[in-house]
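Chains adopt folds. We examine one example:
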Amino acid sequence: MPVLLDCRLVAQEYLDWVAREKQNLGFRPTLATVLFKPRINPSSTQYRDLMLKDAARLDFGVASHEPATEGELIQLLGQLNEDPKVTGIMVFYPIGGRMTDEDLMDLVSPNKDVEGLHSLNLGYLIKFKRWLDETRGIKCVVPATAKAVLKTLQHYKVRVERQFVTIVNNSMRVGKPLGLMFENLGATVVECYDKTRLEDLRACVSRADVVVSAVPDPAFAIDPKWIKPGAAVVDVSYQGNIDTAALGDEVAFATAPGNRIGQVTRAMMFVNLIYCAQSLKKEKDAEAIGKGRPAAS
């Protein structure tokens, strides 16, 4: 049987790091969540509520918003960008409005972009840049789900360099940034999506040393027989794209139902929130020193 990836354990390790780093800030970070009311669905609401529960448990401030129109949404993002009490902003996509999601992502300040979806943050990812300012210790923010997949694999010391990786998703939030992360670490990556022919999907999955599937369609499934011996399988989807119980005994690693990557994704959101808070603190300290005042402790 494959080693089952304990995503709950990995998430807790990062949440423990978040709690320690929070103590060094000297202030209480606040996460603003934005759920577009006309597009509310049960999965987004559940995800938002889980994030709010996590924030309460970690003693973070929260501000939950549900704008009713696209105009209200755009105005709200501008207000949150300027609000000094808000440390990070999390928008639940897809919005499905006149403005594309990709354009809306750029309305969130890159300094408060806990999802790492602003073009500036994605641009740093393309360049494989880890630091916004290494001398000041300010790290780049990268998309949380993609980071969750890699951090989980790294926790279990799954080899990435020189491996063939198939990602079944090419979205801006998961597949595209995850592909860049794997490439930055020396993997050969193929991204499959809804326009990929079935025979090509099967060929890519069958060849892969690492398979990551994140298709939000409950009707979609990958045949477990396609997975080759020794492969690592990460099922990111909420409903499950791969029947773990049907995987062969020779598969090396796999996620398990009820213990999925989503827990690590939420933890990575708070890691990113800490990065945003640290950046804000360093900016405030630099401003205070420039004005002849002591830096915040």
Q: What stands out?
A: The chain has two domains: 25-118, 145-262. The mean pLDDT is 91. The two ends are 51 Å apart (CA to CA).
